[in-house]
Design goal:
single chain; 282 residues; mainly alpha; globular
């Protein structure tokens, strides 16, 4: 039997973006050891991370025909990365919640919720629709690059996006906050907007009920927009309009604090810039 050369069996068959995912879940595993949580929760978290790591190395062995599936698997990584820290997060920190609200009042100099409710209907609808689009925006950006013939940029795209959103999820362990809509009564405020109602329903049933600081929605949308614009300027410009709506709407519609949005923009730009300097193997 002929043994495969070492270079063919080395772990570097993982993509750069997959190494980032591996590093993130190693961080969550370490946090689960440090944070005081029930032994059962710590054990479940550890077993899930072991399974995730195993799938990471399994996907690196996919054939050329399976590489298209591999291009899309980081969407599942993002979903798991969002939910897992909530299993070990501490209760919401009321002191930091009040500090973030105070920053909103100091920076914006208005009652944001009242101002938001007085916005013209078309503007409010645009902000809500933009925020709703934060869920399909990353897949839409990946699809735009893939169908335009830039599959060679997929790893760079995911590197930009993952470097932007994963820190937001990872900080939930240490900075657990409730979003401002929960503190200001926005959830119970009757809404004439169907889109607003849909957004609230999604957040009610499909979120961890904790705020991400920085805003992962903002960071991910900015990183996606920049990654797409680097290859497809017109498509990137269209996504830029949506990203602006997500950023502004996240604050005015009280899905996030203002500091979340600003930090999200900075993180999204940083993730994109770093991805420009990384060497990728196609």
């Amino acid at each position: 039997m002929v043994l495969k050369p070492l270079r063919e069996r080395r772990l570097s068959t993982l993509r750069v973006s997959e190494w980032i995912v591996l590093g993130y879940f190693a961080y969550v595993a370490a946090a689960a050891v440090v944070v005081p949580v029930e032994a059962a929760r710590r054990r479940r978290t550890g077993l899930l991370i072991i399974g995730i790591v195993a799938t990471l190395f399994a996907r690196s062995r996919l054939s050329a025909s399976g590489s298209i599936i591999r291009d899309w698997l980081p969407i599942g990584d993002i979903i798991l990365a969002y939910w897992l820290p909530a299993a070990i997060a501490r209760p919401p920190n009321e002191v930091w919640e009040q500090r973030f609200l105070a920053l909103d009042r100091r920076w914006l100099r208005l009652d944001v919720m009242q101002y938001s409710e007085r916005l013209p209907g078309v503007i409010g609808a645009f902000l809500e629709l933009s925020y709703l689009f934060c869920y399909p925006m990353i897949p839409a950006g990946l699809a735009a690059l893939s169908f335009a013939g830039f599959r060679g940029d997929v790893d760079r795209f995911w590197t930009s996006v993952l470097l932007s959103v994963l820190p937001c999820y990872g900080l939930v362990v240490w900075v657990p906050l409730r979003p401002p809509r929960m503190l200001e009564g926005a959830v119970t405020t009757p809404s004439r907007s169907v889109i607003r109602g849909l957004n609230l329903q999604i957040l009610s049933h499909a979120s961890i009920q904790l705020n991400t600081f920085p805003s992962a929605h903002v960071a991910g949308s900015i990183a996606t927009m920049l990654a797409v614009a680097s290859r497809l300027p017109l498509t990137g410009a269209a996504l830029g309009v949506v990203a602006a709506g997500i950023t502004i709407g996240s604050v005015l519609r009280r899905y996030h604090y203002a500091v979340d949005a600003l930090a999200g923009v900075a993180l999204g730009v940083s993730g994109f810039v770093v991805s420009r300097y990384v060497r990728f193997m196609n």
